[in-house]
Amino acid sequence: MELKIFESPAEVARAAAKYWVNLNPKSVALSGGSTPRALYQLLVDPNEPFREQIAWDKTHFFFTDERHVPPDHPDSNYRMVNEAMFSRVSIPQQNIHRIPAENPVAEDAAKAYENDLRNFFGEAIPAFDLIFLGLGEEGHTASIFPGSEVLSETERLVAAPFVEKLNSYRITLTLPVLNNGKSVVFLVTGASKAEILREVIKTDKKPDLCPAQAISPTNGAVSWLVDKAAARLCSTSNSSNAAAESDLLNKKP
Ligand code: 6PG
Description:
By secondary structure, the chain is α/β, with parallel strands linked by helices. It has helices at 9-23, 37-44, 50-53, 77-84, 106-121, 175-178, 194-202, 242-249; strands spanning 2-6, 27-30, 60-63, 65-67, 130-133, 158-159, 162-163, 168-173, 183-188, 221-227.
Protein backbone atom coordinates (compact mmCIF):
# COMPACT_ATOMS: atom_id res chain seq x y z
CA MET A 1 0.00 0.00 0.00
CA GLU A 2 1.12 3.49 -0.59
CA LEU A 3 -0.39 6.83 0.25
CA LYS A 4 0.62 9.81 -1.82
CA ILE A 5 -0.57 13.26 -0.84
CA PHE A 6 -0.73 16.06 -3.39
CA GLU A 7 -1.42 19.77 -3.18
CA SER A 8 -4.63 19.74 -5.23
CA PRO A 9 -7.22 17.58 -7.05
CA ALA A 10 -5.54 18.59 -10.34
CA GLU A 11 -2.24 17.14 -9.10
CA VAL A 12 -4.02 13.97 -8.00
CA ALA A 13 -5.45 13.63 -11.52
CA ARG A 14 -2.00 14.22 -13.05
CA ALA A 15 -0.39 11.61 -10.78
CA ALA A 16 -3.12 9.13 -11.75
CA ALA A 17 -2.55 9.86 -15.45
CA LYS A 18 1.21 9.24 -15.06
CA TYR A 19 0.43 6.03 -13.15
CA TRP A 20 -1.80 4.87 -16.01
CA VAL A 21 0.77 5.65 -18.70
CA ASN A 22 3.59 3.98 -16.77
CA LEU A 23 1.47 0.89 -16.19
CA ASN A 24 0.18 0.70 -19.80
CA PRO A 25 -2.84 -1.39 -18.76
CA LYS A 26 -4.83 -3.46 -21.27
CA SER A 27 -7.86 -3.77 -18.99
CA VAL A 28 -9.08 -0.90 -16.82
CA ALA A 29 -12.07 -0.64 -14.49
CA LEU A 30 -13.18 2.98 -14.24
CA SER A 31 -14.80 4.45 -11.16
CA GLY A 32 -17.71 6.84 -11.27
CA GLY A 33 -18.77 9.74 -9.07
CA SER A 34 -17.21 13.19 -9.48
CA THR A 35 -13.57 12.75 -8.37
CA PRO A 36 -12.19 10.83 -11.42
CA ARG A 37 -13.71 13.19 -14.02
CA ALA A 38 -10.57 15.41 -13.94
CA LEU A 39 -8.40 12.37 -14.68
CA TYR A 40 -10.55 11.28 -17.63
CA GLN A 41 -10.49 14.81 -19.08
CA LEU A 42 -6.71 15.08 -18.59
CA LEU A 43 -6.05 11.77 -20.39
CA VAL A 44 -7.58 13.08 -23.63
CA ASP A 45 -6.54 16.74 -23.34
CA PRO A 46 -4.73 17.55 -26.64
CA ASN A 47 -2.46 19.99 -24.80
CA GLU A 48 -1.19 17.24 -22.52
CA PRO A 49 1.18 14.34 -23.27
CA PHE A 50 -1.04 11.49 -22.03
CA ARG A 51 -3.36 11.22 -25.03
CA GLU A 52 -0.48 10.17 -27.31
CA GLN A 53 0.98 7.85 -24.67
CA ILE A 54 -2.08 5.59 -24.28
CA ALA A 55 -2.83 2.70 -26.65
CA TRP A 56 -6.54 3.46 -26.87
CA ASP A 57 -7.14 0.75 -29.48
CA LYS A 58 -5.52 -1.90 -27.29
CA THR A 59 -7.17 -0.92 -24.00
CA HIS A 60 -10.48 -2.33 -22.78
CA PHE A 61 -12.56 -0.07 -20.55
CA PHE A 62 -14.92 -1.46 -17.92
CA PHE A 63 -16.77 0.16 -15.00
CA THR A 64 -16.45 -0.62 -11.27
CA ASP A 65 -20.11 0.24 -10.78
CA GLU A 66 -23.10 2.04 -12.19
CA ARG A 67 -26.27 3.72 -11.08
CA HIS A 68 -29.48 1.98 -12.18
CA VAL A 69 -30.19 4.54 -14.90
CA PRO A 70 -29.97 4.69 -18.72
CA PRO A 71 -26.63 5.78 -20.28
CA ASP A 72 -27.92 9.27 -21.13
CA HIS A 73 -29.19 9.95 -17.59
CA PRO A 74 -27.41 12.77 -15.66
CA ASP A 75 -26.51 10.27 -12.89
CA SER A 76 -24.98 7.75 -15.29
CA ASN A 77 -21.30 6.99 -14.69
CA TYR A 78 -21.07 5.91 -18.33
CA ARG A 79 -22.41 9.31 -19.40
CA MET A 80 -19.82 11.09 -17.22
CA VAL A 81 -16.94 9.06 -18.68
CA ASN A 82 -18.28 9.35 -22.21
CA GLU A 83 -18.53 13.14 -21.99
CA ALA A 84 -15.13 13.48 -20.25
CA MET A 85 -13.16 10.92 -22.28
CA PHE A 86 -14.68 8.35 -24.66
CA SER A 87 -16.34 10.96 -26.92
CA ARG A 88 -13.07 12.91 -27.25
CA VAL A 89 -10.77 10.16 -28.57
CA SER A 90 -11.00 7.29 -31.02
CA ILE A 91 -11.68 4.02 -29.15
CA PRO A 92 -13.02 0.87 -30.87
CA GLN A 93 -16.63 0.47 -29.69
CA GLN A 94 -15.99 -3.15 -28.72
CA ASN A 95 -13.32 -1.92 -26.25
CA ILE A 96 -15.92 -0.05 -24.19
CA HIS A 97 -17.72 -2.40 -21.82
CA ARG A 98 -20.61 -0.37 -20.44
CA ILE A 99 -22.86 -1.74 -17.65
CA PRO A 100 -26.30 -2.11 -19.32
CA ALA A 101 -28.01 -0.26 -16.44
CA GLU A 102 -30.95 0.76 -18.62
CA ASN A 103 -32.25 -2.75 -18.03
CA PRO A 104 -35.34 -2.26 -15.83
CA VAL A 105 -34.21 -5.24 -13.71
CA ALA A 106 -30.89 -4.36 -12.06
CA GLU A 107 -30.21 -8.06 -11.40
CA ASP A 108 -30.41 -8.77 -15.12
CA ALA A 109 -28.00 -5.92 -15.85
CA ALA A 110 -25.59 -7.47 -13.33
CA LYS A 111 -25.89 -10.90 -14.96
CA ALA A 112 -25.31 -9.42 -18.41
CA TYR A 113 -22.21 -7.60 -17.19
CA GLU A 114 -20.90 -10.76 -15.53
CA ASN A 115 -21.22 -12.50 -18.90
CA ASP A 116 -19.33 -9.66 -20.55
CA LEU A 117 -16.53 -10.03 -17.99
CA ARG A 118 -16.40 -13.80 -18.46
CA ASN A 119 -16.33 -13.43 -22.24
CA PHE A 120 -13.40 -11.05 -21.99
CA PHE A 121 -11.40 -12.59 -19.13
CA GLY A 122 -12.44 -16.23 -19.50
CA GLU A 123 -13.85 -18.25 -16.62
CA ALA A 124 -11.32 -17.31 -13.97
CA ILE A 125 -11.94 -14.33 -11.69
CA PRO A 126 -11.06 -11.27 -13.81
CA ALA A 127 -7.64 -9.81 -13.03
CA PHE A 128 -7.84 -6.18 -14.12
CA ASP A 129 -4.52 -4.53 -14.85
CA LEU A 130 -5.83 -1.32 -13.28
CA ILE A 131 -8.86 -0.54 -11.11
CA PHE A 132 -9.84 2.98 -10.04
CA LEU A 133 -11.93 3.39 -6.92
CA GLY A 134 -13.39 6.29 -5.01
CA LEU A 135 -14.38 6.71 -1.38
CA GLY A 136 -17.80 7.76 -0.15
CA GLU A 137 -18.12 9.89 2.98
CA GLU A 138 -19.56 6.91 4.85
CA GLY A 139 -16.87 4.53 3.64
CA HIS A 140 -18.45 2.95 0.58
CA THR A 141 -16.38 2.16 -2.49
CA ALA A 142 -17.62 1.15 -5.94
CA SER A 143 -21.25 0.53 -4.95
CA ILE A 144 -20.46 -1.55 -1.88
CA PHE A 145 -22.08 0.33 0.99
CA PRO A 146 -21.81 -0.27 4.76
CA GLY A 147 -23.80 -3.34 5.83
CA SER A 148 -24.28 -4.44 2.20
CA GLU A 149 -24.82 -8.14 1.44
CA VAL A 150 -22.28 -7.65 -1.33
CA LEU A 151 -19.54 -7.65 1.35
CA SER A 152 -20.01 -11.39 1.84
CA GLU A 153 -20.36 -12.24 -1.87
CA THR A 154 -17.71 -14.81 -2.84
CA GLU A 155 -19.05 -16.31 -6.09
CA ARG A 156 -20.56 -13.63 -8.30
CA LEU A 157 -18.43 -11.09 -10.19
CA VAL A 158 -21.18 -8.46 -10.39
CA ALA A 159 -24.01 -7.74 -7.94
CA ALA A 160 -27.09 -5.49 -7.95
CA PRO A 161 -27.64 -4.40 -4.35
CA PHE A 162 -30.58 -2.22 -3.33
CA VAL A 163 -29.07 0.76 -1.49
CA GLU A 164 -31.52 1.92 1.17
CA LYS A 165 -29.99 5.36 1.65
CA LEU A 166 -30.25 6.02 -2.09
CA ASN A 167 -33.61 4.22 -2.37
CA SER A 168 -32.19 2.76 -5.55
CA TYR A 169 -30.36 -0.24 -6.98
CA ARG A 170 -26.72 -0.05 -7.98
CA ILE A 171 -24.72 -2.48 -10.12
CA THR A 172 -21.23 -3.14 -8.85
CA LEU A 173 -18.17 -5.33 -9.24
CA THR A 174 -17.82 -7.54 -6.20
CA LEU A 175 -14.86 -7.97 -3.80
CA PRO A 176 -13.52 -11.14 -5.47
CA VAL A 177 -12.99 -9.04 -8.62
CA LEU A 178 -11.80 -5.86 -6.91
CA ASN A 179 -9.34 -7.82 -4.78
CA ASN A 180 -8.01 -9.66 -7.79
CA GLY A 181 -6.88 -6.43 -9.40
CA LYS A 182 -3.16 -6.10 -10.17
CA SER A 183 -3.17 -2.35 -9.39
CA VAL A 184 -5.94 -0.68 -7.42
CA VAL A 185 -5.85 3.11 -7.22
CA PHE A 186 -8.09 5.12 -4.89
CA LEU A 187 -8.61 8.74 -5.93
CA VAL A 188 -9.80 10.81 -2.98
CA THR A 189 -10.01 14.60 -2.84
CA GLY A 190 -11.64 17.33 -0.78
CA ALA A 191 -12.13 18.25 2.87
CA SER A 192 -15.40 16.30 3.02
CA LYS A 193 -13.38 13.09 2.80
CA ALA A 194 -10.92 13.90 5.61
CA GLU A 195 -12.79 12.09 8.39
CA ILE A 196 -13.49 8.94 6.43
CA LEU A 197 -9.97 8.78 4.93
CA ARG A 198 -8.47 9.02 8.42
CA GLU A 199 -10.83 6.22 9.50
CA VAL A 200 -10.07 3.98 6.54
CA ILE A 201 -6.33 4.36 6.94
CA LYS A 202 -5.83 4.77 10.66
CA THR A 203 -8.43 2.55 12.34
CA ASP A 204 -8.50 -1.24 12.52
CA LYS A 205 -10.41 -2.92 9.75
CA LYS A 206 -14.20 -3.06 10.06
CA PRO A 207 -15.19 -3.63 6.43
CA ASP A 208 -18.86 -4.12 7.29
CA LEU A 209 -18.93 -0.54 8.58
CA CYS A 210 -16.29 0.78 6.18
CA PRO A 211 -16.27 -1.25 2.92
CA ALA A 212 -13.23 0.59 1.52
CA GLN A 213 -11.26 -1.32 4.16
CA ALA A 214 -12.28 -4.56 2.42
CA ILE A 215 -10.08 -3.63 -0.55
CA SER A 216 -6.90 -5.64 -0.10
CA PRO A 217 -5.77 -7.20 -3.39
CA THR A 218 -4.41 -10.74 -3.07
CA ASN A 219 -1.63 -10.31 -5.63
CA GLY A 220 -1.82 -6.62 -6.26
CA ALA A 221 -0.96 -3.21 -4.88
CA VAL A 222 -3.18 -0.46 -3.55
CA SER A 223 -2.29 3.18 -4.04
CA TRP A 224 -4.09 6.07 -2.42
CA LEU A 225 -3.68 9.25 -4.45
CA VAL A 226 -5.21 11.97 -2.33
CA ASP A 227 -5.07 15.73 -1.93
CA LYS A 228 -4.00 17.65 1.16
CA ALA A 229 -7.59 18.59 2.03
CA ALA A 230 -8.63 14.94 2.14
CA ALA A 231 -5.47 13.91 4.02
CA ARG A 232 -5.75 16.72 6.54
CA LEU A 233 -6.36 14.33 9.44
CA CYS A 234 -3.94 11.63 8.47
CA SER A 235 -1.06 13.20 6.66
CA THR A 236 2.44 13.57 7.94
CA SER A 237 3.96 17.08 8.39
CA ASN A 238 5.74 16.96 4.99
CA SER A 239 2.95 16.11 2.55
CA SER A 240 5.24 14.86 -0.21
CA ASN A 241 7.43 12.60 2.01
CA ALA A 242 6.58 9.25 0.44
CA ALA A 243 8.53 7.13 2.96
CA ALA A 244 6.82 8.78 5.94
CA GLU A 245 3.43 8.37 4.29
CA SER A 246 3.86 4.69 3.58
CA ASP A 247 4.74 4.18 7.26
CA LEU A 248 1.23 5.41 7.98
CA LEU A 249 -0.07 2.35 6.16
CA ASN A 250 2.32 -0.40 7.18
CA LYS A 251 0.38 -0.86 10.34
CA LYS A 252 -0.76 -4.36 11.20
CA PRO A 253 -4.61 -4.65 11.30
C1 6PG B 1 -20.33 6.06 -7.83
C2 6PG B 1 -18.94 5.65 -7.51
C3 6PG B 1 -18.72 5.74 -6.02
C4 6PG B 1 -17.83 6.96 -5.87
C5 6PG B 1 -17.90 7.51 -4.46
C6 6PG B 1 -17.15 8.84 -4.36
O1 6PG B 1 -20.95 5.51 -8.72
O2 6PG B 1 -20.76 7.02 -7.19
O3 6PG B 1 -18.38 4.67 -8.15
O4 6PG B 1 -18.15 4.65 -5.41
O5 6PG B 1 -16.50 6.61 -6.19
O6 6PG B 1 -19.26 7.74 -4.19
O7 6PG B 1 -17.85 9.74 -5.16
P1 6PG B 1 -17.27 11.21 -5.45
O8 6PG B 1 -16.04 11.03 -6.25
O9 6PG B 1 -18.35 11.90 -6.20
O10 6PG B 1 -16.99 11.85 -4.10
